[in-house]
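Appendix B: a complete holo record

For completeness, this appendix reproduces one full record from the ligand-bound portion of the collection. The bound molecule is adenosine-5'-triphosphate. The inputs are the chain sequence and the ligand SMILES; the output is the full three-dimensional arrangement of the complex, encoded as structure tokens. No fields have been trimmed.
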Amino acid sequence: MKELSYLNKYFYKYRGRIVLGILFVALSNIFSIVQPILIKQTLDDVAAQIAAKHNKTTLILSDTLQDKVLLFCLLVVGAALLRGLFLFLMRQTIIVISRFIEYDLKNEIYAHYQVLDEAFYKTNSTGNLMNRISEDVSRVRMYVGPALMYLVNMFVMFVFTISAMLYSSITLTCIVLIPLPILIFIAYKVHDVINTRSESVQEKLSSLSSFVQETVSGIRVVKAFAREKQFETNLKQQSALYRKQSLLLAQVNAYFHPALTLLIGLSLTLIVYFGGLGVMQNKFTTGMLVEFVMYINMLTFPVASLGWVISLVQRAAASQKRINEFLKTQPSVQSKGSDAISIKGTVKFNRVSFAYPNSKTAAIKNISFEVKPGQTIAFFGRTGSGKSTVANLMVRLYDVSEGEILIDGINIKDIPIHIVRAAIGYVPQEVFLFSDTIKNNIAFGYTNASESEITHAAIAADVYQNIIGFENKFETLLGERGINLSGGQKQRISIARALVKNAKILIFDDVLSAVDTKTESKILNNLKPILAHQTCFIISHRITSIQHANQIIVLENGVVVETGNHQTLINNNGYYARQYQLQMEEEAA
Ligand SMILES: Nc1ncnc2c1ncn2[C@@H]1O[C@H](COP(=O)(O)OP(=O)(O)OP(=O)(O)O)[C@@H](O)[C@H]1O
Ligand SMILES: [Mg+2]
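The structure of the chain with adenosine-5'-triphosphate bound, as generated:
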């Protein structure tokens, strides 16, 4: 319950509706309680008439009685209709509240997802994150909606029904209530079993669906390696487990209803037997027996669902606990500083070292350099040498472990993250485009971009000709709903996306790897006027991409092993010069 108290702020938000809901609960119960009372009255009147006839005492006027019976019957129908109306209104208010809270909670979780940092996403699987916002939230909704509604309803109904019963007959009330605790206990136990079993059904189902999801997204690899048979066998095994668990669940469900009916039957038998004896001894009237039978019927459903409700609350508490853990997670990269800062573009790394949160060895060690607007710095080195790490630190996906990064002389930690990122045009190593139009993909970081700005960016990234070759040109849809682009086309759209922002700092992480050397030099040429004013980071394995940079830093295992411009590095005769030699020979061949 402690975990669920997190939701109180939402209850407070919708307090007006909640009060209304409770009012409807009370009204619907009032109208259900009058029915047995009316019926009892009617039956007792009729019985009195029969007895009078039998004893030859004065009869009530037959017509008057008939009218009275008719009136009472109509009242019963009226009460039933009103009860129905208020039940409807009760559901309409309380279930609607639960949908509102579900909506708010989803938004809250999603907003928090956006704040969390890269390290969080590396340690939590997508499936896990999806579950929090869908499955766990639905379980919480079952608590704020149905569970609370049933609990309130049950409480009100108990108070009303038991008061009415006590008013009518204390003895009969006791007889009716004897089997109730047993019923509640059994219902709770059964629901406990149902819960554990449905949890495991859920678990099996979710592993089954992640399995299918993975094979579908990796279907090309599965087919190319002719592994279909094994995957089919795997799926059969997983499905069989799921089936087994589902059958176990169906089994408890199958026991539950007969057991319930048995207990209700027991209650009824007790009432009819002891009540019948009482009627013969003139302690009770027949009307009272009928009244109590109706009460039993009214009480059974809420009591039987009590177990279900308890289990709903327990599951919601477990889900809310997981949600709270997420919401409490604070990003390690914190944004602070004045919003008035405007970035010009000088970047300085001062003895920067960094180790990824889950790794012990540093990815970069003691790196220092400075770049000014109009200059280009290049990073070169073997795979895994730490090049992308430099880019990750620049866009502040992580914070440095040691040393400092200064932008215009201000520590990057003291500039609000959104300002840093707005000043950077970043082309990541792994291209990601959204299932949206080409136009929207290019304007992603600068949604106010004009047609001509988008066109210019596309031209500079040398992808314009490709785009206008498509039937819908810039309106062409990409991804799942549209066409697929080649690796090189995707890279160039991703470059256009960074260029259109007209950012002060540009970072190209190995972005020309999927294009041929001719296209590469064309793009580099197009970039020249842009780079003349901006600070640029180029990461590449290809020397042709970086040879014109003002500064080239050669990394090996996160350490700077050589630095200087192209000519100095050639003269140095180290790794860079050897790679240059090799690449030139390849080119010539
Ligand atoms: N998210 C991460 N968590 C832990 N270690 C990481 C992570 N990303 C990279 N590393 C490690 O950091 C080191 C540097 O990686 P980085 O991505 O910077 O290399 P790179 O020079 O960009 O390589 P490539 O040329 O292949 O892109 C590698 O040893 C890598 O295993
Ligand atoms: Mg990399």
